[in-house]
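Subject: for your reference before the review

Hello V.,

The reviewers asked for a structural picture of the protein, and I figured it would be easier to keep everything in one thread rather than splitting it across files. Below is the amino acid sequence we used in the manuscript, unchanged from the supplementary table.
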Amino acid sequence: QLRLVESGGGLVQPGGSLRLSCAASGSTFDYTTTIAWFRQAPGKEREGLSCITWTSRSTSYAASLKGRFTISRDNAKNMVFLQMNILNPEDTAVYYCAAVRRMRSICVLSPGEYNIWGQGTQVTVSS
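And here is what came back from the structure prediction:
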């Protein structure tokens, strides 16, 4: 059974960068696996950030990110990454990766689309 394990979170100063990783555990990604990153800040709804299909031909980003984040994947290593740049305090949240095993030519940022979730990693942006 596929499980997801996030890592790479931590405390970073405003303007800094972090790279989050999402690793497969218990099973491997396959050609049906689409991955997305979400985040949830205290008192706020879960927000979709970015997603990527198996071939990486389709990616999607939340408009609010304004190009600061980049998603990528290494299928051979069963990992997906989220490079986050120019972080600000509003980016403070728990970050989750999520997966769905269903063939998709495009990916979407709706939480209901995904049925496998990691435990999350905390990102805190503060001076």
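For the response letter, the relevant points are probably these. The two ends are 40 Å apart (CA to CA). DSSP finds no helices and eleven strands in the chain.

Happy to draft the paragraph if you're swamped.

O.
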